[in-house]
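Review form for a predicted model. The reviewer records the input and the model, then writes brief findings.
Reviewer: anonymous (R2)
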Amino acid sequence: KDCKQSLQCFSVTPLPRLLLLLLLLLCLLQYNNIEALVTKLGIPDPFTPYTKSSFWSPEGLQVESPVFQDLPLLPTPLGSFVHTAPLFRNLSLLDRATAVPLVKPLLEHDLDEAIYRHYDSMSAYELFKSAGLSSQLYDKFLVPMLLVTLFAPPTELSAAAALGALYYFALAHQPDFDVRWCKGPIGQTIFEPLVQHLKTLGVRVLGSRRVQDILPAKLINPGPTGSSPKTLATVLDPALPRVVAAQGPEGLTEHYDADVIVLAAGVPALQRLVMQSRVLASAEDLRGVLGVGCSDVLAVRLWLDQKLELRSSSNVVAGFDEGVGGTFFHLNELQDMYKSEPGSVIEFDLYHAESLLPLSDDAIITHLLQTYLAPALPRGLEQAKTLTVQDSSVLRVRNAVTRFSPGSHLLLPDIVTSIPNVFVAGDCVKQGPGAHGCKGLSQEKAY
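Model under review:
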């Protein structure tokens, strides 16, 4: 509440500023912490109204997701089932009914640690196959939804993680999956006010510094940028990690005293720190993260010469490339800075995109327009071929998002680690019974 001690924030791994500007903040109805944050910061009207979404495949429109809170409230799970029933285009009621055997796993998967570990030990594909789900339900709904929500296909996902994500489609409160979007770049709209607020509390934000190591106090004799020897001499347990070593803006190593260390980093950065720090590597619960995999992301923003008329401003796409799913957004309708653009500005975010990253920028752009966007256009491929790209940004991000594969539950760290003054935050924290906030990958959990 009141920062009596000096708090310092470091950059663990460089994040391209453009990537931060490209990312859209999705805010689900149940993201209460983020709602409280923007209220506390006094950010005026940062989000769009709740939006409908459309899901597209090579066969065209598959289903539309309504704004559930605008519809009559029905008991769970009738609300999501009844209100989406007429919106499915190519998935029969009989196919959807084959999901009934999943109700038991959805209800019990996180009742206790033993049950969660049981479901975490198998893949989502194995669970769906044993439950007798139809191939149509699997191919046309479950595969695309998990590619977008957990960024990997069911064959590579823990059944426990998949059930945690699917819970919001089936058994949560009716409007819990209603979505809205940040009306501007999150770097400017959310993070800059947050940083300024932290500074008023005494936090020092040290940019342009890459954390290199976490060291025990007894091994360090810091220079003028770090702690005084008097401070280090008063440390009760010199074996605990008490010093952060960071590479400064001029390439020199700087040392900073730390009573408590919070590792708020993604899996790749956390893996690198564990590998480089002997004191972190000595903790078995932190070493487990070395076995956690990640998926690649392709983020593309296109400025087009034409103003497009699209059914929805937010869209889900899957089935166009094996194992790849994603979203695309009509930013003219979502972000204030693009409303006056003469042509449409479209952003594509593709997940599990390892197979697409080697392509050239031009090949990627053509593929996205003529394959992913075309089904959503009134005149389809014919119209897509007439589009001219006036400007573009293509970002390839290796190991961008956590992959919750079978067995990953035992590998991920808890918020509280076995090292008394080291804590972990972010979407790579262990989930399961009693876990805080939303399950899977989410802005709420990361916050």
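Findings: The radius of gyration is 23 Å.
Further findings: The chain has 18 helices and 15 strands.
Recommendation: see findings above.
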